[in-house]
Amino acid sequence: MSTRPNYEALDPEQILATIDRLKLRIEERFQERGIAQICGRLREIASRSQATAEWTTQPILWVRFLTAALVLLIVCGLLVTVTGLNPTQKPLTIVEFVQALEAGINDVVLIGAGIFFLVTLEIRIKRKRALSAVHELRSLIHIIDMHQLTKDPERLQPEHRSTSSSPGSELTRFQLNRYLDYCSEMLSLCAKLAALYAQNFADSVVLSAVGEVETLALGLSNNVWQKIAILQSLPDEEKSLMPVADTAVAEKLEPDAV
After folding, report:
1. pTM as predicted
2. Which end of the chain offers a freer environment for a tag, N or C, measured as fewer CB atoms within 10 Å?
């Protein structure tokens, strides 16, 4: 019996399968270019993203046991202190009552703050790991943008003249279109991986970070599609070779030799 697909939540397995197919497509066309290495890095991050997203949905048992034990210890200590009081028969004055009330309020606030710290400890541990993973995706998004930065379709115009500092490698019009399209797909997949962290972990800080990554990926993807639109608007007779070079990016990736 076949399993019905779930259209209400992102499926990590399907995202991984999509990245695997994209990686093969890129390697078949641009085996020697940096974009293939970036997609390989995206695949590594995706495998960790799935594990991290699943980890945030699981309880951290040692934290919960420790929290319960410490809260119970605090409550027991408070009860022992209250029952051990030996009030005198002498009525309290206004000053003594105010002082006792102030001390009691301070104790209650401190105890409440301590219990709140312990109760939210598990959420803060998960939040730290999720934010670290989101930051990794943000860095990869900027690396993808750096590699498409020099892919300028306007160099196909007849009046364009290269200078001594112009990139020296060549891409055809079709290859440039595929290169930019692959960059746009990777940016979209980065946003989907970020969304995995917020899918089952409703933490406001993580949700905000994921939203920033999605906005960043969308904005850079729009820039890529503007280049694609310019490229497709050029006349057919300008399907000449154009010089394009991968930008060298030093973040665990080898500089492109193109």
Report:
1. 0.72
2. N
